[in-house]
User: Fold this.
Amino acid sequence: QVQLVESGGGLVQAGGSLRLSCAPAGSIGSIVRVGWYREAPGKQREFVAYVTRGNNTIYEDSVKGRFAISRDNANNTVFLQMNNLTPEDTAIYYCKANMMIRPYESWGQGTQVTVSS
Assistant:
């Protein structure tokens, strides 16, 4: 099993920055990639970015050039640096790990990001 704990959300003005953290615990060696997703009020949860064990990264088009996902290999924490935030980025942000073992994926509890105009 893998447990994920997110932190770093908050309230920021448009144009500001936040850095989210996702700290995994448990069967860390089974993790093949860690991603961030977000769920805005009244909308479906959507993909934001992920980083693989080999440090390959993929981003959703609307965050390219503004968000950066990275890993701290020393403690396995994954970060999402979010710059030039807009009100459209307001959502609950969730961390998700894909693993090689059952149950193959694990979600964190979410952290709220609110961007005011």
Notes: Residues 41 and 91 are 7 Å apart (CA to CA).
